[in-house]
Amino acid sequence: MKKLLISLLVLNHSLLYAQNAKTIHDQAIVVDTHGDILFNQIKSGIDIGQLQHTGNFDLVRAKQGGLDVQVFSIWCDEKGGFAVANQEIDSLYSLIKRYPQKIMLVKNADDLEKAVKEKKLAAMIGVEGGHMIENSLDKLEQLAKRGMIYLTLTWNNSTPWASSAAEETSGKVKKEQAGLNDFGRQVIHKMNELGVMVDLSHVGVATFFDAINESKKPILVSHSCVYALNPVPRNLNDKQIKAVGKNGGVISLNFYAGFLDSTFNAKQKVFFAKYDSELKSLSAKYGRSNAIDTLISLHPADAEATKPSIETLIDHVDYIVKLIGVDHVGFGADFDGAESFPSGLNSVADYPKITAALLKRGYKPAEVTKILGGNFVRLLREVKSKK
Question: Residues 137, 271: one domain?
Fold first, then answer.
């Protein structure tokens, strides 16, 4: 009888905990500051307004996961530019036109809250790579008019006016040439004037500090993690994290296993070696990136063994909170832009699992609400402010 009573108490506690997590998640504004959805939509021609069984995002799974705000990344490599950016924005406009009851374009915090109230996904635009403005302040302004709420100053490639993390660390950009030049500083000033967030994911350390010191508004780091927990060039060191705290900005954590888990790359190499001939064959047929996705789908058990747990993601949250406080962290999953995420985080439908993990770690409901999206909404208001 005693064992039965204990089991019932544990069960009741678990049910109450799950109900509490669901209530907090449903009441929060849940924001994802970075998803590489549009580029893949254009390539494949799929309709992300309907439930899909590929990729990490569609409007059905977004609703299931309680996702309120999705910043759609506008991305192309260094061979593309302003025209490609507009093509991807056109595809988002088209999606909104097809599903006006499910999704609406949002450019500011008031519109964001209106979309949430109407139970529509708030669609926002983030341009990932300064090369897409083609060294033109006029093109920067045109993208802002179309709805761009942030510009990532670089992608992996540097621009003539800003150096990237990839090229600073590889030595392709010499130390004396790293950072922002005079035109780069003009870009920051123009973004401040237009109310466009300065996004410092992907940029090199020199560019990071030049930009954060130049900006009169708080900045965003849309999809990066903590260097101290996993020392890869795309992650932020302690000095950078502290600078974001001082600036009043927000660091949105990337869900990519390779940025979260310092053991992931070694595990992935073992996985690739096991299926080397198959990977080579798939790469010849589909290209390396699609080949990896296909290989993972063909061998799910082995691929799953390489993944970190959700707890690893929460470790990165903890690190930032302990260093600069709970007001400066959020999430930018990089869904549809990476091949591996923590176990159980397979799509935007899985966002409630993060709320449960944060509560389990000891975060209070008000803190969870800030992390899930409140910090981003505050940042958006401050950047759009005319002051």
Answer: no
Q: How many other C-beta atoms are found inside a 10 Å radius of the C-beta of residue 347?
A: 20
Q: For the segment 100-144, what is each residue's pLDDT rounded down to a tens digit?
A: 999 999 999 999 999 999 999 999 999 999 999 999 999 999 999
Q: Is residue 72 part of a domain?
A: yes
Mark out the alpha helices in 222-305 (DSSP H runs).
238-247, 257-260, 264-274, 276-286, 288-298, 300-304
Residue 242: strand, helix, or coil: helix
Tell me phi and psi for residue 370, to 5 degrees: -65, -45
Tokens of 180: 């922002």
CB count within 10 Å of CB 273 equals 9
Residue 1: pLDDT over 60: no
Tally of domains within the chain = 2
Distances 90 to 83, 126, 152, 335, 373 between C-alpha atoms, Å: 10, 14, 19, 20, 26
CB 37 within 8 A of CB 59: no
Question: Where residue 202 sits, what CATH number does that domain have?
Answer: 3.20.20.140
Cα 179 off chain centre by: 23
* Domain coverage including residue 81: 26-261+308-384
* Residue 126 buriedness (CB in 10 A; 0-12 / 13-18 / 19+): buried
Domain C-terminal end among 248, 278, 306: 306
The tokens describing 275, both together, are: 């299926």
Do 106 and 228 sit in the same domain of this protein? Answer: yes
